[in-house]
Design a protein that fits this description.
One of its GO terms (molecular function) is CoA-transferase activity. By secondary structure, the chain is of the alpha/beta class. The protein has two domains: 9-217 and 341-403, Rossmann fold; 246-329, formyl-coa transferase, domain 3 (2-Layer Sandwich). The chain has 18 helices and 13 strands. The longest helix has 24 residues, at 178-201. The relative contact order is 0.14.
């Protein structure tokens, strides 16, 4: 069955997370992605473990789960781009691709003749995406940075965590590398937008993606609240700033998320907890008043929620059209009947002779469905094939490059 992007070829010069996440998205959609890694060491995240994949004999390999999370469906070649010969290999490959994605520090690839200006002169139809911490311009553009830094600088940690007045209060990072993930997603659709524009213009273009920019964009309605009110938002734990009740409640056993998004759902919730009169109380009847009077409403609901266990409330609320949900650990997530039905956990056969579990791509397309073809590649496993098929190099030429340490 055909895939949506199987006509596209990608030269992947990325490492760590944001860049590889973007190119994995393209690979999942069918693009051929050739990942260029350093000889011997490869991508830094190959060593970011444990845990590491165990082979068929139960021996620990060098395949880190972190690396395997963002490099599925790709081919790996090893090339030392600090050498003239390695740079020439990358330039020749760039002539044949539609997309180049890189996340080197600003100016690094220009020293090697692998920057946008150099490669677009060889291939004007190429879309070239650069991903950096701070972007290609500005006073911080030359600085390095990791996801954690941008969660702080971008404002996310000022919004995440318990209030300072509560025990354990203080700034808290997101549980995942959310700045990297978001930047990778933005980069993916920016690349596809540039490809679509190429259909009209016939030309590629340059894309400048910044982790800081993308993190700031995530503040979304919280920044709009600040712009409109002039008040700096504070950490509110599991409470929503603009919607009430929209938070975690303690039950007789366990905790539950209640996410009441409109007045009709609020009335349904009030009937469900045995307090129908609350939905007619002028303090709480409409959403804006519930926000203004949350300190009066929430203690009433806190008491009511102690009547039943979390599982009992889920059953009651689901029958009465009240949006709610349990708080799962990851083992519980993948045992949930809906998650199982959607096949969000799948397995791929690995060259080490084992099946590798992976989180499935969530995109569902009717005519060009996602195909998870293979797990993250072994380091350099496609080097000879790519150099022979794409550049026409002979066995002797490849051996000579290997002997020099270029591959």
């Amino acid at each position: 069955m055909r895939q949506a992007l199987e006509h596209l070829r990608v030269l992947d010069l990325t490492r760590i997370f944001a860049g590889p996440w973007a190119t994995q998205n393209l690979a999942d959609l069918g693009a051929r992605v050739i990942k260029v890694e350093r000889p011997v060491r490869g991508d830094d995240t190959r060593s970011w473990g444990p845990p590491f994949l165990k082979d068929a004999e139960g021996n620990e390999s060098r395949e880190a789960s972190y690396f395997m999370a963002v490099n599925r469906n790709k081919e790996s070649i090893t090339v030392d781009i600090s050498t003239p010969e390695g740079q020439e290999i990358v330039r020749e490959l760039a002539k044949t691709v539609d997309i180049v994605v890189e996340n080197y520090k600003v100016g690094d690839l220009k020293r090697y003749g692998l920057d946008y200006e150099s490669l677009s002169a060889l291939n004007p139809r190429m879309v070239y995406c650069s991903i950096t911490g701070f972007g290609q311009s500005g006073p911080y553009s030359s600085l390095p940075g990791y996801d954690f830094v941008f969660q702080g600088m971008g404002g996310l940690m000022s919004l995440t965590g318990k209030p300072d007045t509560e025990p354990g209060g203080g700034p808290m990072k997101f549980g995942l590398a959310i700045s990297d993930l978001t930047t990778g997603m933005y980069a993916t659709f920016a690349i596809l937008a540039a490809i679509e524009h190429r259909h009209i213009s016939g030309k590629g273009q340059y894309i400048d993606m910044s982790l800081l920019d993308c993190t700031v964009s995530l503040t979304s309605y919280m920044s709009m609240n600040y712009f409109f009110s002039g008040e700096v938002p504070k950490r509110m734990g599991n409470v929503h700033t603009n919607i009430v009740p929209y938070q975690v409640f303690r039950c007789k056993e366990g905790d539950i998320i209640m996410a009441v998004g409109n007045d009709s759902q609020f009335a349904d919730m009030c009937r469900s907890v045995g307090l129908p009169e609350l939905s007619e109380d002028p303090r709480f009847k409409v959403q804006s008043n519930r926000v203004r009077n949350r300190l009066e409403l929430i203690p009433i609901l806190d008491k009511a929620m102690l009547q039943h266990t979390m599982l009992e409330w889920v059953e009651i609320f689901e029958k009465n059209n009240v949006p709610c949900g349990p708080i799962y650990t990851l083992d519980q997530v993948f045992e949930d009947e809906q998650v199982k039905h959607r096949h969000m956990k799948t397995e791929l056969n690995h060259p080490l002779g084992v099946n590798v579990p992976t989180v499935a791509n969530p995109i569902r397309m009717s005519d060009t469905p996602i195909q998870l073809r293979k797990p993250a590649p072994l380091l350099g496993s496609s080097t000879e094939d790519v150099l022979k098929s794409e550049l026409g190099l002979s066995d002797d030429q490849i051996k000579g490059l290997r002997d020099k340490g270029i591959l």
